[in-house]
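Hello,

Following up on my earlier ticket. Below are the two sequence lines again, exactly as submitted.
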Amino acid sequence: MKSNYYKVLFFAAFASILATCKPELTLPSVSKGSMDPSRYVAVGNSITSGYADGALYYKGQMVSYPNLLSAQFKLAGGGNFSQPLMPASSVGVGASGAAPFMLGYSTDCLGVTSLMPVPVAASGDVSAFSSSVFASQGPFNNMGVPGAKAITVLAPGYGNPAAGPGNYNPFFTRMASTPSTASILSDAVAINPTFFSLFIGNNDVLAYAMNGGASDAITPPTGAAGVGFDGSINAIVAALKANGAKGAIANIPDITALPYFTTIPWNGLTLRQGQADTLNNFMPNGTGGSLYNFQAGNNAFVIEDSTVPFIYKRQIKQGEFILLNTPLDQIKCHYLGSLTPIPNKNVLTLAEIAKIEAAISSYNSTIQSVAASNGLALVDVNGFMSRASKGIIYNGVAINTAFVTGGAFSLDGIHLNPIGNALLANEFIKSINTTFGSTFPQVDATKYRGVIFP
Amino acid sequence: MKQMKRIRTFSALTILSFPFLMQAQGFQVNLQGQAQQAMGGAGTALMQDGSAVFFNPGGMSFLNENSILAGATATIANATFLDADNNSSAKTVSPVSTPFAAYGVYGTKDGKLKNFKFGMGAYTPFGSIVTWEPGWTGRFALTSLKLLAIFYQPTVSYKICEKLGVGAGFVLANGNVELKEDINVIDANGNYGSADLKGAATGYGYNAGIYYKPCPKFSVGLTYRSQVNMKVSNGTATLTVPTSLATNIPSGPFSSSLSLPSVLTLGFSDSLTSKLILALDINYIGWKCYDTLAFDYKNNTPQFQDTKLPRDYKNTFAFRLGGQYQVTDKFIARAGLSVELTPIESGYVTPELPDANRLNFTLGAGYKINKHFVIDASYTYEHFSRTDNNTALQLNGTYKTYLSAPGLSLIYKF
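Thanks for your patience. The regenerated structure is below:
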């Protein structure tokens, strides 16, 4: 009899012990493998700097992919990672002095209010360009400079204001050790890196592409350091690894993955029958009579094209791009894209796209062979962006490259959002782990946001 | 000798079951009777008490007394997840659930209906409660799930002869489901969106069984509990998103359905001595019915479409072996074990149910207070872990679960 009660008591006690017992899973140990992350330097452009939403600002810099990488490196020997941070209180500043975008309500010329990227302030914090942060925060591990090209990474005095407006890079001026003489590369090498990442070459085509091929030039794939892409990349890598540093090099994504080029549909000219008839009457249709054909419904926009004899305009073709900087109000209310052609600077034609793609393809071959011959981890950003443009899923979060709704890109359509940066950092980590036998964990990308909605 | 041979049969069956361990139990809850729970869940061929309504309606007519039984089991489950890609880990903070079972069995000793017994049961054969800690890496797949199905089963059992009984019950199923997850849209204050899908479900089915007792010491049971399709016809989807998206991602009604699987059970019971009885149940569970978890929202928009989540469960087995020993006239000790093979295939493990093949150990006791009252207690302990990369979610990691289930029931005989 008594023993029965003991048994019941025993059960109860046993049960209450197990009830409080939670399962534990042991974290795998993190190893740096054959690389040494103690002094990590990131060389690159705006993507490396953390530029987003059309501007360099504190919160964007905090989620730059090199900063995220450095946090993972700290799990196995990584050192301090210094960035040329904008003040946290600053609104931030874009390349043309503008403030960053946010998603807000905007009323167009037709009186329709909708969600659009709008500047967070009337002007950006241009004072940042003239206040050096080198003395207070430098030297810098993050040598990502907005606007930098492969050919300008080696340029001495790249941040020298004495060169005059347009001939120097004010983003580098604020962070350079000696703006009059330093190059991005010389300041990076001064860190004496044990490990580096190099993600450069986007602007060697983008500066051309983002201007619709109307200005700037594509960097020649071959040529001497400071002139051609391959010579520059080889010189940069040679300098960075001069003291035995190992590194990772990323290739260049195709522009078709960037919402800046793919958001405005080529056939977005929506007409009623009456409007189509009017346009067909008004537009001189060339000798062959086949230049234009407007119908009710969706129509190809009319664009400038200097190669069309006499009239210098035509309807855009499928596969050609109308850029995100095209003034939409002009399209909606002032016949831009119909009676008035969309200017060359807002359009990439098939011929221009072919030039860009040929250059990217050639750059990526160079990057691949430089990676192989220097034992660098090759980060296939091109492949990653290509997958992202079809849609990727990370721990239940669906991401794609569509403007605003896709989540990966920030509101400038070129630079990544925090979650996009986290996923990019993970591409670096995967390649570094594979190449150097390290076991750095990936960044938990779910901790990083997409587009902020009002 | 004959008995020895049977023991060998038992162990051979048990061993044969292990090669299937690579396969595996889903949100089935095997907590319908304390005596059976204490014996690894076996009871299709061993008529313990009023829980025969559930375990074998065919054997219910063999119960000697009329009785009422009520019991409950506190289920304490704790799980931990470790993400294989980013090393983040998360624990569940699930509340304790208390599946219950209640039965009444009545028949007359004489008269036209002396070979009949009538029973009523209410029990919870399926359920799952899981709540993951806030901010965990899988929160866009699931933050919490509450799923509960209660079956009400009026039952008739007929003793054809002293060796054979048949019985069947109609099942009216009533359920509730509530699923919550975060949505990957964020407002200016850093709040993510969230979805809360809540609904009541109903369904119908049956539970039929045959009980055969060729000799006083040995019996066989065969039961079939049908698949029950639970339909949520008027659920409420509450979607909390930034104001500017409220018309794109609207709240509103939804419908859904969830198929609860059929269970075919073959059971054996053998009195090795006057005091020791062994029982074995083999379940074949028709989980293949759970291929998709679909939500049909009334207010669709281009950004907010119906969802169809692949589950692709497969049919599976469970093996339950238990023994009970009459220590004294008043006191019975019980022990058992069960092997439950998971219905979830690789690539389909979700945080709503990180199931794996399970090996459970059980203990229990029964105490006869007087000729009217019996008290039974049981204790079940399970631990299992599963590493999987969910294809649809791209959620890759290891789940480890501890489950502890102490239970108690009271029987009144008359």
